[in-house]
Structure formats: structure tokens, C-alpha cells
Amino acid sequence: MSFEAKRCGVHFDPPSIILVYIHSDTKKVRKRIIPVRNFSKYSDCSMAAERLKNHPRHRDYLDQVPQSQLEKLHVILRDHMQGYTMEHSLASFRLDPDEDLNKLDDEELARKKGQMDRLFERNRKRRDDPGFVYDLEVQFDRKAQEKCSWDDESDDGF
Amino acid sequence: MADDVGSITEVDQNKYDVDEQVKIICLGDSAVGKSKLMERFLMDEYRPQQLSTYALTLYKHTATVGNKTIVVDFWDTAGQERFQSMHPSYYHKAHACIMVFDVQRKITYKNLAAWHKELREYRPEIPCCVVANKIDADLKVTQRSFNFAKKHGLPFYFVSAADGTNVVKMFRDMIKRAVDYKQNPRDFMDEVMRELENFDLEKKEENSEADEDGLKAESPELD
């Protein structure tokens, strides 16, 4: 028996994680409502996500849902409990290439890093992947390179 | 000698004076991938030591350079970069520096100027390189030339911590340069330190010679 996760979201009241999935035996689309218990505006979202992911009654259903996504849904839920809007939560995940991330606190930075990690994991080559080369070297042709627009003559040191 | 810049109590920085030990530091903005690069290079060896009080992570690595075994301590920031300045002990006795930026974020490239300036205040001559990370996000960046490195005479690497491109090459080059530098320092302070050490040694030798002379003088003639 396996479940193909299609979508996973969050419901504020009562606090719950909603999973839409296809039952692989019956091919039927089902919706599962998973109540989020013992969770407050002070809770640790990463731990809560891990707990849910390993929950004996839900883990088979959540098998295909990355823990990072569950964590994100918990963050949105907790933001809501703290009185923030959904827009605020979503903006906190969004990557703005011009934003100075040095100015963020730990929690805000963790949200941005979480987004970056998605790309990292997508492109990641692991040791047991076929064709993995530990000391992969690639030469890039210096002569064919064009000047980078980031090197503005007026800037000091560039 | 009072050594208060090296006063991170959990790390004895005097060990970096030993020939087989080098210290390599990482610099760059938040979220440019400094730790990810370390993890990719070290793979299974990856066992960081977190010093959260100092917002610092240390990674130990053993390398072979020539026919010598070298113990490398990599110093990585753990949030200290947020203040866009590092504690002087971070630079203290460093033998090489890896400066990283994110090719997707211009601000991290522009901030290299400030990082490089601070580095050179503490370590005017140590080998340093510029690393353009996350090229897997958009390979087109490798068709562009980033002038900062050339302008400061620093080696430049296009790398990806995710797919591994040029990560190991960059680290191996830097370890070798750190060892070369250590054997042949160009920093004024390093030379002063060396002179002082030699001075101490000479003094000790003089003393021991004097003792020997004294002994000789007192020892009876045997033949």
C-alpha cells in the first residue's frame, strides 16, 4: 500500500496539515486532515515537522512530503498564531537577490536558507550517485568571457 | 608574551606555530555557501566543532603535501559575518583565506571589497582566493569575467558546492599555498615573530654554551 502525495498545505483553525494524495491501489484521490497537536506560537517548527514526519499513523502518507515542506507549513502556522499575515510569512521565504541577508536574524536567515537548500538539493550530486566524481574539475574558457555588469568602474576596488 | 588576540579559550592558537599545522579561514556574506563548500570537500571526514560562543565552526582535515602530513584547521563563521566584521582572533595566525560569494547575489560580490580590506588589515600577505559559488544555479555566469580577483591579483574559482565542480581543486590549491606561505612567510609580523623565536633560541644556546664552558672549566683534565 503506498500513497502518492499530490499537494500538502496548512489549515489554521483547527491547526492541521492537509494532504491530498492518490491511493496507489485504488487510484482514488483522497484528502487527509492531520491535526497538529501540542503546537503553540512558541514551538520549534523543525522539531514539530520531524515529529509529524515520523508519526506512526501518518508517516506512510507523508513519505513523499519532504520534511522541509512540513517545517515550512509549521512556520506559516506559527506565524499565524503570532498574529502575522500569510503574506508576511510567504514574503519571508521569498528570495530577493538584492536583499542583504547579513541584516537578518537567525530565524529569518534560516527561512531564506531553506529556500536556497531546495535548489541545492535538486542539483546535488551525492557520493552514491552514478558518475559521482569527488575531485570534479571543469575548466572555463577565460578568453571567451565577457565583462560582468557587476564590475562597475565607478566602484572602489572593482 | 601576552597573546590576547588569540584568546579563544577553547582553541590553542599557538599550535599553528608548529610546522605541520596550518589555519585556513573562510570569509564571505551570510548564505553564500561557505559551510556547504566545507562539507563537500570533507565528505565523510566532516566532523565540525561548533564554538557557538564565538559564532565559529572549526573543521579538522589531514592532508598530504609533498611527502609531509599536514593538519589543517578550517575556520568557518557561524553567523559572525552578520556584523560584516570578524573578531581579530579569527585572522590571528591564519595562513590562507578563502573568500566566497554567491553568483546569484550581486551584494555578496560587492561585499568582497570590505572582507578583503579587513583581511589585509590583519594579514597583509597571506594567500587568498576568490570563489564564485553556486554556478549550478546558472552556468551562464561562467561566461562572465569577475574583475575583483584579477584587480587584487587573487586566483579565481568557479565552483558549485552542490555538484562539486572545482571544490576539491580549490581546497587542495589553498592548502598547498598555506603550507608554502608558512614555510616562507611574507608578512612582516610573521617575520618579527620568527626573529623573536630565533632570538630566544640563540639566547638559550648562548646560555647552554656558557654552562658547558663553566663545566669544562671545572672538570679536571682527563688526559
Structural account:
- The complex is a heterodimer of chains A (158) and B (223).
- Chain A has helices at residues 45-53, 67-81, 86-93, 106-123, and strands spanning 3-11, 16-23, 29-35, 146-147.
- Chain A has 158 residues and is an alpha+beta fold.
- Chain A has a 3-stranded antiparallel sheet.
- In chain A, β1 (3-11) and β2 form a beta hairpin.
- In chain A, α1 (45-53) crosses α2 (67-81) and α2 (67-81) crosses α3.
- The termini of chain A are far apart.
- Chain B has a single domain (4-185), classed as 3-Layer(aba) Sandwich (Rossmann fold), CATH 3.40.50.300.
- Chain B is built from 7 helices and 8 strands, in the order βαβββαβααββαβαα.
- In chain B, strands 2-3-4-1-5-6-8 form a 7-stranded mixed sheet.
- In chain B, β3 and β4 (68-77) form a beta hairpin.
- In chain B, 38% of the residues are buried.
- Chains A and B meet through α4 and β4 of A and α3, α4, β7, α5 and α6 of B.
Could you list some keywords that capture this structure?
heterodimer; A: 158 residues; alpha+beta; three-stranded antiparallel beta sheet; 4 strands; B: alpha/beta; Rossmann fold; seven-stranded mixed beta sheet; 22% strand; disordered C terminus; Small_GTPase (chain B); RabL2 (chain B); GTPase activity (chain B); GTP binding (chain B); RAB, member of RAS oncogene family-like 2 (chain B)
